[in-house]
Specification:
This protein is an alpha/beta fold. About 30% of the residues lie in helices and about 25% in strands. It folds into two domains: about 5-30 and about 300-425, Lyase, Ornithine Decarboxylase, Chain A, domain 1 (Beta Barrel), CATH 2.40.37; about 40-295, TIM Barrel. The structure holds pyridoxal-5'-phosphate (PLP).
Length: about 425
């Protein structure tokens, strides 16, 4: 059994992705290759939308965090599915706008947005700019005033919850580069300042407590901390804010041992907490936003590689080298991230070998996975690294002047290119 149902095997014993034979894909489009199951992406999006409709009366917006995987086709899918998009740079904003994504449904994040990025956001009518700090608050008000516009904003708050400790705790997590701290009074000062700025419309508050979170409880705790702050704002200023953005961070399964509740359960529980707690505090039930990234695209993506050399170092380890590596997937090098790997042309054989899968970059740390179980493989075999849909293509680089792989989407067994393979001409295009 493989970790995700996005992949399966066919009568030839080959791996299939979204119904397409992985070997045929590798043959047709070359390797390394990013392959996405379009149905899986849409299914995940709909899971979130349906949950917000069912458990929160539809009084919310699902916003895809595009930093997980951003390209025009992904923005088109979000547009078709009627959700919002969260962007964190001028480049992601440009990508969304280039497919006529409705600006009102764009949420713009970042702890140090530039003057040009903020100007582009205001000029294009981005619905919610998430203001991170006082400098930005002032700068944005000036930009909006100069353009004769009013910008919709939310403030990013540090709720002081560390979701990554086993017993997640409410800590004084002031040491983060993102957002305004509650406990120092900084957040309240920022709210008051924002309310006084004529060219800004404060729509609500935002928090994001981390990524790859399996428990529901940290989200519930964050919602409570934020709602208490809504109440404090009401008491101190008389203003009732309309919107609560709870960020993203819903975990996915990389390995069989990983477990998370269905996303509907997260939304159900958090919705119940928001409804009952806002009632208890005597404040309006807010419109909510959630910003899933990884949980929408993570398991939908698979990376295919061709095996080059297999190097057995007696009593030490076996290196299986592939034609990609940290340039297309830097996550193991960065975080020691887990992945399940399978040999696509021997997908039904047992994984009896323990190997290290290495990339082709000139860097010892260029590994995809260490001590992982794999079928016995030889040069020319095709490897599939599973659940690479999030933070792989979007984190890819040209290190060693390696061209970025293409992105393929598969739907009903049919594959199409949504991002072409980079060429050496493109890599040298800006060289003088
Ligand atoms: C990264 C990020 C997300 C998405 O996180 P996932 O773990 O991919 O769901 C959402 N909101 C903000 C502000 C982020 O920085």
């Amino acid at each position: 059994m493989l970790v995700t149902k996005c992949v399966s095997t066919n009568e030839k014993g080959h791996l299939t992705i979204g119904g397409a034979d992985a070997l045929e894909l590798a043959e047709k489009f070359g390797t390394p290759l990013y392959v996405y199951s379009e149905d899986k992406i849409r299914q995940k999006i709909r899971e979130f939308i349906l949950s917000v409709n069912k458990y929160y009366n539809g009084n919310g917006l699902v916003v895809y965090a595009s930093k997980a995987f951003c390209c025009k086709e992904m923005c088109r899918i979000c547009k078709q599915e009627n959700i919002g998009i969260d962007v964190v740079s001028g480049g992601e904003l440009y990508t969304a706008l280039s497919v006529d994504f409705p600006a009102k449904k764009i949420v713009f994040h970042g702890n140090n947005k530039t003057y040009d990025e903020l100007t582009a956001a205001v000029e294009n009518g981005v619905g919610r700019i998430i203001v991170d700090n006082k400098t930005e608050l002032k700068k944005l008000n000036e930009i909006a005033a100069n353009l004769g516009k009013t910008a919709g904003i939310m403030l990013r708050i540090k709720p002081g919850i560390d979701a990554h400790t086993h017993d997640f705790i409410k800590t004084g997590q002031i040491d983060s580069k993102f957002g305004f701290a509650l406990e120092t009074g900084e957040a309240m000062d920022a709210v008051k300042a924002a309310l006084d700025m004529p060219n800004l419309k404060l729509r609500g508050l935002h928090c994001h407590i981390g990524s790859q979170i399996f428990d529901i409880a940290p989200f519930e705790l964050a919602a409570k901390v934020m709602l208490e702050f809504f109440r404090d704002i009401k008491l101190e200023t008389g203003v009732e804010l309309e919107e609560l953005n709870l960020g993203g961070g819903f975990g996915i399964k990389y390995l069989k041992k990983d477990y998370h509740e269905p996303y509907a359960e997260y939304i159900k529980n958090v919705s119940a907490v928001v409804s009952s707690f806002s009632h208890e505090l005597g404040i309006k039930t807010p419109f909510i936003l959630i910003e899933p990234g990884r949980s929408i695209v993570g398991v939908a993506g698979t990376t295919l590689y061709t095996v080059g050399s297999v190097k057995k170092i007696p009593d030490i380890r076996t290196y299986v080298s592939v034609d990609g590596g940290m340039a297309d997937n830097p996550r193991y090098a960065l975080y020691r991230s887990d992945y399940e790997i399978v040999c696509a042309n021997r997908a039904e054989e047992d994984r009896t070998e323990t190997v290290t899968v290495a990339g082709k970059c000139c860097e010892s740390g260029d590994l995809i996975q260490e001590n992982t179980k794999l079928q016995p493989v030889k040069s020319g075999d095709i490897l599939a690294v599973l659940s690479t849909g999030a933070y792989n293509y979007s984190m890819a680089s040209n290190y060693n002047r390696i061209a970025r792989p293409p992105v393929i989407m598969v739907k009903d067994g049919e594959a199409r290119v949504v991002v072409k393979r980079e060429t050496y001409e493109q890599i040298t295009a800006n060289d003088i």
